[in-house]
Every structure is written in structure tokens, then in C-alpha cells.
Amino acid sequence: MKILAIESSCDETAAAIVEDGRNVISSVVASQVEEHKLYGGVVPEIASRRHAESIVPVVRKSLDDAGLTLSDIDAIAVTHAPGLIGALLVGVNFAKGLSLSTGLPLVPTHHLRSHIASNYISNPELKPPFLCLVVSGGHSHIVMVEDYTKMKIIGRTRDDAAGEAFDKAARTMGMPYPGGIELDKAAENGDPLAFKLPRPVVNDAPYDFSFSGLKTAVINLIHNSSQKGIKLNKADVCASFRYAVVDCLTKNFLRAAQDFGAEKLVIAGGVSANSLLRSTLSEECKKRGYKFFMPQKSLCGDNAAMVGSQGYYEFISGNIADRDLNAYATLSIE
What we know:
alpha/beta; Nucleotidyltransferase, domain 5; 2 domains; 5-stranded mixed β-sheet
């Protein structure tokens, strides 16, 4: 089964052709990063306009790259939630129009479920059940994936997401958007023990995260040092902050794995590209005897291949949308 997938939840317009949920025939991504870099972050109105300009050529290129036409496609999958509402609406409305004109089934796909599904592409042997840490700019969840379309949230952030904390800390240090990537690179040359930063915990919720206080602590460190005329070693600040965030993520994830008897651990989302998170969990899972899976770095960010993968499993489970499909800025992964 071949699925044409469309993704437009934030600042990448993407389309892909995926066969049977695992085989990527083509994948095209039009990034807006350079434009949003001018403003230090994603401007929703600009993002929506660029999606409207890019979606037709991106979808056409995905078909051309695959050497296919719409007559070769079995269904259309589209990200309908969560994300920037204006951006989502561009993809959803385009997919609805394409579905109406071709008669192809329309499959609504959840953005975070798609991030998890990126692992099915990178790791063809992976099958549920497994425990997944989903970490991105807007989300930080520990999810029990019981089946391809049946998921349960075990833990979540109570305030900032891990990716958001990385980006805001990086911005405070004058790094360009997307800051998390730049911070990760700078941290490679720093001392992770140079600065003692807090490890916030949530009382009575051992699997939940809280990154607001940690983010505030590093921002205050930077501002206070600047006001006193003290020059900080940027690499050391980055390394210490990255170490603190990864420490919080790893401890809660491993605690949940032990308490719920998980045997397979998976990471997904934009922050799953973080080099320290990948290496730390690889080592810890090896020590504890867990099977560990992570997506290839090219699939950590937003893309349509992951939408096509999850869309396949949504389709075979009977999740077909009516013509009144809408987009939603927030929607539980459950």
C-alpha cells in the first residue's frame, strides 16, 4: 500500500510517499529555517504563507521523485494536530481537496504519533509494545505504545518542553535559531560539571518533567554574570545545561521503564537528535539490558515520511476522515 503523506505543522512543508508503513519511496522537505532565523523563532503568519506557496511544488516533487502519479496512490495521510493552527490548516485543506478530487481515502494523523513512527522506518524490526520518550520543541512525553494506534501517556512536562528550554537558553547566549542545535554543538567542547544547575522534580508525579525552573536558572546565570561583568565560558554553560536537561529526561524515562516492566525503549522528536541524549540512553539501556531504538537523525525533525508511516497504521485500523476534517492546535496523543 502506497500512502502520500503531507506535513505542515510548523515551519517545514513536507510530502512523502511511503509503502506499507516502512519503506520510504520519496521524501521532500521545504524548510523555512533561514527566514525565521531573522526573527529568532517561528513567526506563525509567515509560516502559514510559506506553506501555501510551497505545498503544491513539494507534493508534485514527491510524486516525481517516486516516479508515480496519483493513480498509483492508495490513500492520503495528513498531519491534522497538534501544531500551529494556520500552518496545519494549509496541509489539511490541501489534503482534503486532493482527496475530494481523486476519491482517495483521507487519513488524519497525529504529529507526535508520527514522530514515534519515524522509528519504524529507521528500525524495521521494531514493533509495539514499547516505552517511548517523545521530546521536541513543544512536547516532552513518556508514552506507553501498546499498539500502533493505542497509546497511553505515562509522564509529561508540566511547563516548558525540553526543546523549548534548549532554544530559549541558546537565544539568551546569542545563538541563532534553531538554538537547540547550536547549543548541542557548542556543548561538545564544554565541561558539563562546570556549573551546578537544578534538577526540578514534580511531587507525587515521578515520571513528569518540569523545565521552567532549569531554564530560568541558566538564564539568570547568564544575565547576572553579564551585569557583574563576568565573562562565562559559553561552551561550559551549554555543556552544563545540556547535561542537566538530559539527566532529567533520562532518569524519569528509566524509572518509568523499570516500574512498568518495559523491555524496549524508544526515543522520538526533534530533541532525539541531541547527541548526549542518544549516547546516554544507549549506554544506560545497554547496562540495564533494554533494547534501545532511535530514529536516524534525518528523521528526528519534522518530515512527511514519518506521517506516511503512522498514516499506514491509522488507515489499516480504520481511521478514515470525513470531508469535515479539521485541524487542531492541541490534541492528546491518546
